[in-house]
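Title: Request for sanity check on DNA repair protein RecN prediction

Description:
We are preparing a figure and want to confirm that the structure record we downloaded matches what your pipeline produces today. Could someone re-run it with the sequence below and paste the raw structure tokens into this thread? We only need the token string, no images.
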Amino acid sequence: MLDYLRVRGLALLDDVALDFEPGMNVLTGETGAGKSIIVDALTLLRGVRGRAELIREGDEAARVEAQFAVRGPNNQPLHPALGERLDELGLDSEDGTLVLERRIRRSGRGRAAIQSNLSTLAVLAEIGGELLEICSQHEHHSLTHVSHHLDLLDAYAELDGPEGPLADYAEHYRRWRELSERISAIRELETERLQRADYVRFQIEELERVSPEPGEHEQLRSRLAVVCRAHELAGFATEAQAQLYDDDHAMASRLAILLERARRLPEGLAILDQLAEQLEAAQIACEEAAAAAARLSDEIEVEPGELERAQERLHELDRLRRKHGCEVDELIERAQAMREELDALDSTEGELEQLEQLEAELWAEACQRADALHEARVAAASGLARAVEAELAALHIPTAQLTVSLCPLDDQDESDPRSGLGPRGRDRAELRFSANAGEPLAPLNKVASGGELSRVLLAVKSVLSTQQRVATYVFDEVDAGVGGAVAEAIGLRLRKAASKHQVLCITHLPQIAAYAEAHFRVRKQVVDGRTVTRVERLDDDERVEELARMLGGKQVTHSAREHARALIEQARKPARASKAKSAKAKPKPAKSKAKPKAKTKSKAKPKPKPARRQTGSRRA
């Protein structure tokens, strides 16, 4: 139950604090006074995206704070599932209250908190959704969308919920869908897989043929340098030996010829003798140099073809290094990675068979749950229709007829037997309606007027409220398009709902406002040149004046006041009778319906913030 609400900096609400009562709370006021802004504030506590244009001009942020009672007089949780969820989140509600906060900023960075602990928007939406059900003035248009009708049936059949049958089916359907898409992707890539496997296999064979070894590249380069040097030295030694001594025209041979000729020349010339001696010395030097070259050649050990083999090996390694874009030592790891990839590619065929088998099992499980959903919906459809018809009769459509038709999904493909399931099962629901006796049933969105849609929505909400755990219902001008006796009937249905739930109702109709157990008036006024919205709790006399204004307009007459008193008195009669009947039928104090004000006075309401009551008086 919503105990307390404070709104600051939201549109015309500069700083408004409200204390609500159990039962039926009504907010009235002129059009444009700011009533729906209070609903906007509550939607923020349900995780709705905060828009910067909601922030009051001149303020940088808007703040909404609400305190809910989540435990009863005996400290019993009013929402067992919510209590378990709060325990999971580590949020303490032992004092029986729960405080939700929301702040939106112009900069876009907002803040959400539960029990003064920072919260994600998703968690706030989850908790707020458990506490508040908001029915806006435009929600009856949702009835014109057939896609929404299945939601209503599932709620009535109690199939929804985080751990309900629908969630269980949705999880199995999601798993089947994801696996089916994975299998389709594998099949589409089969040709690419085969091509890739052939390519990887070729690369592995090439690497295994070359078979590089760790450190081989550097060792090979070092050895190649040595072999090249040895070949260079050996070539020089061979060439030197040949030119000095071995060739036919070697230097030693030519010097021997010159020396022989010099010796045959006439003697007696000292210079000739000197030349002969020098030629002989040169011949000896050539022979010694040739011998040294021969020794050098003998000392150099190079295997035949080693240079060519080393160059070819180095060329092969460099080619693979460039091809794979890595160092030679990394080629070994690359080969291992390719072997693993090839194993994975080769095993895909077997994996595909396993996945297809698993997919068939998941499909069967999803179908089984879809069948169970369908049977539950079929069983609940007539019950929902009869319950809504009964509510519509009380809302002055006594001849209303309603059916909930179930049919297969629209987008089924006859060539694909597995197209018969969707995220919510195999069903599509449609409400068919007739307001007049003897008239055939037709789709609700085609035959219902605006006033009839409003009453159908209220009837559905009334039926669902008997099954839902939400403690507080907010109705924002759901009386659109009605008046007179119908409005009185709507007020009576809201009062009935308020016997089990807290109701916050925004209305322009005095026939509905007369049923209020707590009546608030919303009005605009100018303060320091700025327009602000003020909300005040009305006493009995002020209620009469407000209803008289709603009945007679700006000029409140005596007859309007009398009419207002009559409406209030008439509204109190069924409430008194209901309370008397309840007291007679349920004599135990723990189960009796206590008067809202007495209940409020009997308990001390915990305050999340000590200073908040400065603006939280009956008149805000």
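Thanks, this matches our download. Confidence is low (pLDDT under 50) at residues 577-620.
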